[in-house]
Write a structure and sequence with these properties.
279 residues, alpha+beta, four-stranded antiparallel sheet, globular, zymogen
Amino acid sequence: MTSPFIWLQHLLPHHAVSRMAGKLASSEVPWLRDRLIRRFIAAYDVDMSEAARGVGEFTSFNDFFTRELKPGARPLADASQYVLSPADGAVSQIGRIEEGRIFQAKGRHFTAAQLLGGDKQAAARFDGGQFATIYLSPRDYHRVHMPAAGTLKSATYVPGELFSVNQVTAENVDGLFARNERLACLFAGPDGLFASVMVGAMIVAGIETVWSGLVETHAAKRVREEFGDEHTFAAGDEMGRFILGSTVVLLFEPGKVEWDARLKAGAAVRMGKAIGRRR
């Protein structure tokens, strides 16, 4: 039997709710901004000791939510040997892409082609490869970094729903991560092609990249940008950030990555830590 929470997810006007949350979060009115920040810190037990700025130094709630960390707060593993976690969070699922399908939860799957916005050519290269889905909770650091060195080849905005992303929705909403609004980025690296897909969720007010700034979200059409060699990153470099949200899905070609066997669904990860070995 479907829970009331799932029914509510289907009934709510996802984008209208998210736009309204975005307006509140971008407000620079001091009393509103500071109240939102302080209540959020208390509600989610946010560790501010590692933040580069103090509570009173943010221009808006969004500025706080995408806060930078103090230098050295996230030391990087040896990228010559390992794939790095792109974000703080928890593993939702991790494993092998089987016949183009990516495991979501409890018998539910979605395809790499769906996740990438219909790019069947790129999806075919990941068949038999490895995926990792990492969920960022509200208390986490919300900047997204490179899991490996690579040159940006394309970035595709894919319009979609904005279901909440958590274990309950993963177990009850078909194709959740390939159904929600997302930005699918493809990179060419020393070990071949890999993807880093930033997936939105309910009240995610935006996705931002270091190469083009704020992505126009809540839009109706798919938008793909192609790139040459102008945007090249080292492992651990920042590539983007979530303004309120959500989840990162990594895809690697076959034979390139062997995940750390200790990483199961629910395992905590920190940006820059080794999550797999390069092969």
